[in-house]
Amino acid sequence: MAGYGQHKEDIIRRLRRIEGQVRGVQRMVDEDVYCIDVLTQVSAINAALQSCAVALLDEHLSCCVTEAIAQGGDRAKEKVGEASKAIARLIRT
């Protein structure tokens, strides 16, 4: 089971909201809305995606990584490594 399983509906709700925002930006471009207004909405979408990513990472750390550390061994090292790489990807964006 995914680490976010208990909060799956919340994650899906966030992603659907983001999807709606993206569709709104597409409409704005189609309607030739002022570029700064479009960029403002793109910035809001980026912030929403970052927030969703942080929520997923938090779930991964509190569930998957915590369980792996409790078990110990190579699995713990693997999960910590995965989390570290995910954090690195997030801070690059």
From TrEMBL:
Gene3D superfamilies: Metal-sensitive repressor, helix protomer. InterPro entries: Metal_Tscrpt_repr, Metal_Tscrpt_repr_sf. Pfam families: Trns_repr_metal (PF02583). The keyword rRNA processing does not apply. Keywords: Copper. The keyword Membrane does not apply. It comes from the Bacteria. Belongs to the CsoR family. This is Metal-sensitive transcriptional regulator. It comes from Streptomyces zaomyceticus.
